[in-house]
Amino acid sequence: GGGAGRGVGGGGVDVEAAAWEAEEMVKALRGIDGVLDVRVVEDPAAQRTVWKIREDGSGLATRSVDGVLSWPGWEDAAVPPRNLGAYLRDFHRLLDQFGLKGVVYGHFGEGCLHVRLDFNLQSDDGVAHFRRFMAEAAKLVVAHGGTLSGEHGDGRARSEHLPTMYSDELIRAFGRFKAIWDPRGRLNPGVIVDPAGVADDLRMRHRWRTPRVELALREDGGELGRAVHRCVGVARCRTGSGGVMCPSYRATRDEKDSTRGRARVLQEMLLGETVTKGWKSPEVAEALDLCLSCKGCKIDCPVGVDMASYKSEYLYQRYKHRLRPASHYSMGWLPRLARIAAKAPRVVNWVASSKITSGLVKRMGGIAPQRRIPAFARRPFTEVFDQGLRQEPLPEKSVLLWPDTFTNYFAPAIGQAAVRVLRAAGFDVLLPSRPVCCGLTWLSTGQLKAARRKLRHALRTVAPVVSAGVPMLVLEPSCAALFRSDATELLPDDADARMLADNTYTLAELLAKFAPDWEVPKAKEGEQAALQVHCHQHAVMGAGPDAALLRATGAATTVLDAGCCGLAGNFGFERGHYEVSRKVAEQGVLPALAAQPPGTAVVADGFSCRTQFEQLAGIRSRHLAEVLAARLDLESTQAQRL
Ligand code: SF4
Ligand code: SF4
User: Fold this and answer.
1) pLDDT of residue 2
2) Which residues' Cβ are closer than 6 Å to ligand 1?
3) What ipTM was predicted for this assembly?
4) What is the 247 CA–ligand 2 centroid distance (Å)?
């Protein structure tokens, strides 16, 4: 069987009276057959969560449980509240009769129901079926003393059926009244007084194209059309704060730079009527250019529009067998270049930073001139790692530490800090037996075939160890997110990809799951920490364990909810993106950091976030591993003194 939730809002100025009313309601509801549980939600944060479900209702209802798309049309009928029960029963009978399904939500107290139904709008028969249903539903709601549109307007969806509700005389009166103000019929033609048929201009009748795609798009049956039509247009992506979605819109305030704007342009591209050149359409290039691939929409959009994936697919299709922008080589091939640079890091760093040569390097690499190229470490982490039990027979409590490119070649101290923490928590640390890369930078620049090759090689390297029961720790959040989520989009049939998705952890997750009794090193008295959650971590893993771990150290911890840092991997380094990258940071996270009490430790696991803070505001931030390792060092120094 299935279950459904229902929220009932109560309020009033008198808290005691409201509490009493709530209690009475709980008692009454508990007595009703079929009610499984009733809870009163008093905590404001929990109330916000409940309301978010309600606010996202229209988005959540866009597809039925079995994944079939649902559409508006009959989404706003209302009846007098006393008739609601009878109407609902008849309405469900009507749905059964027409073989339709939908989740009903909305304002039951007012007798107004929202619902999206799984009409088939892509065939002539389906559209005829839709028309018949609309006519019958109109008769039904009127028979129950109701109205076709309870809360919103009649518009094109319901004008044709207004005569079911109003007399001909009244409709004619509407027409005469409108003609006084609009004698030439220019305002909103085809609506209410001279209605067009409900199915006359259905966009879905022109079936979208189904180009072959390289990513699996598993949630959408491999169909880009279904994926981009997730967007229902409720515009949560046009908010100015909270969550991550959508940083580019927050920076430019231009619809085309919002998730919705991009989804619409891709929809048009697939329909081919106004955006006509397919993947080569300039409108598509323009709409996707400022997408940071932050994955914010993947989690913050109520229907999980995943624009970062669509952008990867676009970049793949657009540049397949063609010369790519320079940044796709300089930053897309970063892991490969980093391996070469590691042979002579001092020379490379000099060339990349010297006034004489850095301009040329940036020009050749498609890098924004305002950016400083991060310096390569003298020795990669994999070289300085004290080998310990590297690939020895597996001890009971081992962890495989993934040497991501950023930790390995730019910040080996983070890898060493992680080893220090892991050993203190009782783990033996293993490294992969050969150089590896998850393919992240190839994925984000749309070089999907190369990304798949890198990933497959990585999986074959680590799978034997992980399948023997050793969890894998990934310190860089975007690489962790790749294993947890993107890997199965790149290699949907690969058993190792699925296995790694289930066995890859962030540091905080790993410690919480495999070392729950470890005594976390304590923070100094009065220590404050501000946690910047990397966007990909926000979207895929969440940062609950990170915040819990920091709090367990005793540090007063604030999780910054100020959005993306604006750098987002290659995005902020690419020529032409600097201003938007900077603006994103200046509108969200930099003011949030500035508002922290002096001396607050800034914790940021993402290489991008740390680089952005440092380059734009001179703020030093540290990986969680470094914070914990520093405390361990402090504790052992203090112990030695005693
Ligand atoms: S992309 Fe924006 S408008 Fe579309 S469903 Fe998501 S939040 Fe709503
Ligand atoms: S990936 Fe980020 S920038 Fe791109 S559309 Fe989604 S939220 Fe906006």
Assistant:
1) 35
2) 59, 231-237, 259-260, 263, 297, 301, 303, 305
3) 0.87
4) 7
